[in-house]
Amino acid sequence: MTFEEKSAFSIDLCQSAGLLARDYFAQRDQLRVDRKGSHDWVSEADRKVESFIRERISEAWPDDRIVGEEHGVAAGANGFTWVIDPIDGTTNFLNGIPTWTIVLAGVSGGKTQFGVVHDPIYGETFSALRGSGARLNGQAVHVAESKSLNEGTVGMGYSNRISPDNVTSIVNALVVSGTMFNRNASGALSLAYVAAGRMLGYVEEHMNAWDCLAGQLLVAEAGGVVEDQNANEMIRVGGRVIAGAPQVFEELKSIAIPAWGG
Length: 262
What we know:
By secondary structure, the protein is α+β, with helices and mostly antiparallel strands. It folds into two domains: about 140 residues, Fructose-1,6-Bisphosphatase, Chain A, domain 1, CATH 3.30.540; about 110 residues, 3-Layer(aba) Sandwich (D-Maltodextrin-Binding Protein, domain 2), CATH 3.40.190.80. The chain is about 40% helix and about 30% strand. The chain is built from eight helices and 15 strands. An eight-stranded mixed β-sheet has the order 4-3-5-6-7-8-9-10, with helices on both faces. It has a five-stranded mixed β-sheet with strand order 12-11-13-15-14, sandwiched between helices. It has a two-stranded antiparallel ribbon with strand order 1-2. Strand 9 and strand 10 form a beta hairpin. The longest helix is centred in the first third of the chain and has 24 residues.
């Protein structure tokens, strides 16, 4: 099975999982919810949507490795890894905010080969296949190349894994640069918006692989710039993410790295 075929499969799978997640979203007041940490929640919906995705993958490719946010690692035998975030933006989901996504990426040889970020609420499916560009609902998209930082918006994210001082530092640095900043609580969707030219870039000091691999590939395939990282290492420990349109990428690095103490 080729990466092209797996990419097409992943688009269909994310859309099917999105229908399931939407049903849970409509009944969110009835869901069991557990707390993993500060502003870090997991619901019955997260677990069941991930189980649905895992089952479909295992049926189609039983020898593939699967890594997911909620159910850990299923060992594989062929060096290919699926990376799942069943609901990126769980806090939004649980509070009735329609900003959350289904995220799926395929990794081989230390590189993300394809990725999908599916927004079930607005019916938007962002997809990328390495070497073949990025798409939104099947139509090619491209990063914004005609704007400087003070003419657009930069997405940012943070979690309980980083120092609050570093969060305020990056906000201050972005404001001083003259750019608008946005945190929508779904890093994957923010990266997809960069790929589609809606935002100029995205920065976050630490992201897990399931939150960022698909979005990073989207940005790169849409003509943007992303820090070169080994996808297997990202799966193992996560890492920082800086991504943006070519004309703002270096400026974003010069803002973000000092703010993070790097």
